[in-house]
Every structure is written in C-alpha cells, then in structure tokens.
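Backbone-to-sequence.
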C-alpha cells in the first residue's frame, strides 16, 4: 500500500512538471490518456501558471532537469538516439547538466561508515568535508588513507535507489501503454529503449560494478601508460554505496589556457584521443562510453589522458567488432556493396533485405561526404547517417553500436577541438588494418586455436561416446530428420512422385528384360553363378532392386 501511494505521488509530481513546462501534450498521443487532457484543462493552475519560454526541445530539457536523476540520465541517453529523435531535440538534450547541489558531509560520513562497517577515523587520516564534485548519482570527497595514499571517495546519494526504481516502474508502465496503443510507439520500440536505460542506470547505482570497470580499463592500458592513465581502485574500501580510488591530479581537458600554459602539444593530444578510442574498440572490445570533457583530464607532466567516472562502459562481441571494422574499411574504400553485405551477414538487417537497394541507399549517404577532404569527414556523423538510413530497412536496435557512436562523437569532438585539421581516418587506418590482419591471417588462426584448445581438450574424451550414441540411434531408427520449411516440403513431395515413377519404371524394365533373357537362354538356365542358378539371379535381382526402392520411397514419405 505504501509503495503504491509513493508511486501515485511520484506520478502526480511528474504530471505537474509536464504541465508546468507545457509538455503534457506528449502524453496525448496515447488514445487511452486523451480524456486526461480535459481534467488538466479544468485545473486552475494550468491557466494561472506562467508560460515557460523557449521551444519544445528547450522546455523538454528543463523539465527533465526538474524531475531529477532518473530523467536527467534518461535525457542524456536519448541525446545519443538520433536514430529515434529529431536533431533539434537531441542537440538540446546533450546540454543536460548532471551537476546538482551536494548533500551534507555528515550524511556522506554516515553512508561510508554504515557501508564499510567501521568508523571513518579508522579508514582515513584526513577527510575533506566539502565535496569536490557532485552529480545526480553520487558525490566525491577527497581524503587520505591511513597509509598516506591520497584518495578520492565516491559516495552514492542517500535514498536514491527507491526513487529511481519507482521512476523506472512508471517509465515501464508508459512504455507498455505506448507499444500497446500506439503504432509509433511500436515502431520506436519504446519498451526496449526503457529496458536498455534501466540496465544502464542500475549499473551506475552499483559502485562495486564501477570499480570493476575501472580495474578492467586500467589493466588494458598498463602497457601503454603514455596514452591513458586510469586511477587505481582501493578494493578494501569499496561497496555498492562507496568507491575509494587513487586521487588524480590533472588539468580538465576543457581548460585550454591552462593546457597551453603547461606546454601541452595540442596536435599530439588530438591524435592520442583518436588512438585511445580505436585501441579500446578494436584491440580490447571494451571502451569508456562516457568520455565527455567532464570525465577527461590531462597530466601536465607528460600530456597523457586521465579518465574518471566508469559507470557506463561499452563492449563488443567478436561478430560486432569484426563487422564494424569491415564496415569502416569498406566505407572509406567506397565499397558500398560490402557495407550492405556486412550488415546482412551480421544480422543487423533482415536476411531478405534487397542488397542492391540497400547499397544504393548507402551510396546516397556516403558520396556527398567523400567529396570533402578527408580531414573534414566526421566518422561519427557518417555512422549516425548510416544508422538513420538503416532504420528504413528495419535494422534492429544495437545498443552496443549506439554507445559506440555516442563515444565516437565525444572523442572526435575533443580531437577536432585541439586540431581541426586532424584526419581521424589517418589515425584509425593502421590500427584497423593491423586488427583485421591479426584476425584473418595465421596469427589469428593460432590465437583462436590457443583460445579454444582447452575446450576441445575437455570435449575430446566425450566424442567417442557421443558418436556411438548417434550411430546407435541411427541404426535403431531413433534419429528423426524433421524438416519444417514449406519450400523444402514441396521439393520433397515432388521427389516422392519422381521416385514412385522411377520404381515402377526401373522395376518393370528389369522384369521384362529378365523374362526376355530367360526365354532366349532357357537351355542354359541351370548354369551356376556363385552357387546359385542363373534363372534365380534373373528373377531375384529385379525383385531386390524394386523392394529396395519401394522401402526408400516409404521411408521418405514417413519422414
């Protein structure tokens, strides 16, 4: 009862914010909610409240900020979905700020002590009361461990999980209504979008998962400290509500004047940004998916990148990684046929897609772009336009590719900001070519052999038993062959009719020939062949052949 009351109260607050920003119209595309419009129009607050300034995109951003963490994060995710929303809306949503006032330090202390099960003074020799940064999910305090190591302590906001779960339940309810009562809702796959978002924000709530993400990314770049540095996680002081890691000292990447004063080479910086991205995607298949300027710092001593905030990470399976590389290489070779075929082979578009039409649509996207110099070509925008076009060919939503496109937009923006003439493709080509060669050549075969050999070693002793079981089932007729394809069913019926005619024709011919031979050589019918008289061979062979073909016809008919 209490939970239902809380959800009802929260729904009323959401409605009130939508009305305040004149966004209640977004609800009325659902026929089931249209009567609600009359009720709202009878509310005096609808007439008295001042009309907010700005167009629909701006009012939407303001409403999401007013609704709190769940909706701020939702707006940030939707800002990357240009395959679903118009550009003016996604550009405005990209301005959503995740900065909110910090909660009291005393509350942060209480959460740390309850979560880690010991007093704060037993963990830290120093703890800064003022939060260094505050966002909708958590805030950060600087501290010093008892052993002298400088640390950054990330603390999740109190009572946040209950509010987010209630908001997700409300969003899920409206998503169900949208797909049930709206054709546009079904086309946009609203439930899948909400489910994808719920998975992302629940992952951000668990700071243990974020700590694991940081450790994995740090391990991936340990051999290349000149490119990217990831702070160390102090696992003894981590929990789902608290994460303690190494404190980093760097210049925010947005502070160009400070970077120039530190003597940072901007051209090198832009190249490193692109190289870090492509190494994450095509070497590790695991990438930081929230690389906006607020999460990136530059080490003033050597110009390397320093990353923070690992709540959102992206990963690619082998197939997505392979076909993404194929697509990018084929794009820049203007081999649009290969791009279309790669989409079909990857299962991103239906297998019955007309490849010629798909190729023509891709050519219409790419050719105007390639008329520009290579350093002016935006790989991120090229992928975006491809995703928008493939929607007409019923391409299924690929969450990992959408995260990738969002990250590429951020990285490309950073790289071009420091060197507008940077040719992203020039940086990517050697990495892509090396990766494809390693996947296709002898080295790739050897790596796959080493990867799967332990599994083969475990399965090998079982093969004789499995093979014996299959042969026994075959011998006893217990291994059915079931064909459900309608086209193959027609072929089988035609084959049965052909076999029937063949049985009658061949069997009848053998009998007639046998009788003729017997009539012509009746005085030699007692001649023995392999211990049997000649006349028995003449009669027996046609009968055996006929019987065998009849059995084959019956077997095919029954199966």
């Amino acid at each position: 009862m209490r939970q239902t009351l809380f959800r009802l109260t929260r729904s009323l607050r959401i409605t009130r914010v939508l009305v305040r920003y004149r966004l209640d119209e977004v609800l009325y595309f659902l026929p089931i909610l249209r009567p609600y419009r009359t009720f709202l129009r009878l509310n005096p607050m609808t007439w008295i409240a001042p009309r907010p300034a700005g167009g629909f995109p701006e009012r939407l951003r303001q409403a999401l900020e007013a609704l709190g963490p769940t909706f701020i994060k939702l707006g940030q995710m939707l800002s990357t979905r240009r395959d679903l929303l118009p550009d003016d809306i996604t550009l405005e949503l990209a301005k959503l700020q995740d900065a909110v006032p910090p909660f009291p330090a005393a509350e942060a202390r209480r959460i740390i002590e309850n979560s880690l099960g010991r007093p704060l003074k037993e963990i830290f020799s120093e703890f800064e009361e003022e939060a260094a940064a505050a966002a909708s999910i958590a805030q950060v305090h600087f501290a010093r461990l008892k052993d002298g190591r400088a640390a950054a302590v990330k603390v999740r906001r109190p009572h946040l999980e209950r509010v987010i779960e209630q908001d997700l339940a409300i969003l899920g309810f409206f998503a169900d209504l949208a797909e049930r009562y709206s054709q546009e809702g079904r086309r946009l796959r609203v439930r899948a979008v909400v489910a994808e978002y719920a998975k992302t924000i629940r992952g951000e709530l668990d700071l243990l998962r974020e700590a694991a993400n940081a450790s994995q990314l740090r391990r991936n770049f340990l051999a290349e400290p000149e490119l990217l540095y990831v702070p160390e996680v102090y696992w003894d002081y981590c929990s789902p509500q608290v994460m303690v890691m190494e404190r980093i000292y760097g210049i925010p990447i947005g502070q160009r004047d400070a970077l120039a004063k530190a003597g940072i080479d901007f051209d090198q910086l832009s190249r490193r940004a692109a190289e870090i991205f492509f190494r994450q995607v095509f070497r590790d298949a695991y990438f930081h998916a929230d690389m906006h300027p607020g999460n990136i710092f530059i080490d003033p001593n050597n110009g390397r990148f320093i990353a923070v905030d690992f709540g959102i990470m992206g990963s690619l399976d082998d197939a997505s990684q392979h076909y993404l590389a194929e697509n990018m290489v084929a794009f820049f070779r203007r081999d649009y046929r290969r791009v279309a075929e790669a989409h079909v082979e990857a299962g991103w578009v239906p297998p019955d897609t007309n490849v010629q039409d798909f190729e023509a649509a891709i050519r219409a996207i790419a050719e105007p772009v390639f008329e520009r110099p290579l350093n002016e070509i935006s790989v991120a925008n090229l992928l975006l336009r491809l995703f928008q076009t493939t929607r007409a060919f019923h391409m299924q939503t690929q969450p990992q590719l959408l995260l990738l496109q969002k990250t590429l937009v951020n990285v490309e923006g950073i790289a071009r900001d420091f060197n507008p003439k940077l040719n992203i493709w020039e940086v990517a080509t050697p990495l892509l070519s090396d990766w494809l060669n390693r996947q296709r050549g002898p080295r790739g075969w050897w790596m796959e052999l080493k990867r799967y050999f332990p599994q083969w070693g475990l399965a090998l002793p079982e093969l004789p038993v499995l093979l014996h079981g299959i042969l026994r089932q075959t011998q006893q007729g217990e291994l059915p062959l079931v064909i459900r394809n309608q086209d193959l069913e027609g072929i089988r019926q035609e084959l049965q009719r052909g076999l029937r005619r063949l049985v009658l024709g061949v069997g009848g011919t053998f009998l007639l020939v046998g009788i003729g031979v017997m009539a012509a050589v009746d005085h030699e019918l007692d001649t023995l062949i392999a211990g049997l008289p000649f006349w028995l061979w003449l009669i027996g062979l046609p009968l055996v052949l006929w019987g065998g073909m009849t059995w084959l016809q019956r077997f095919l008919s029954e199966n």
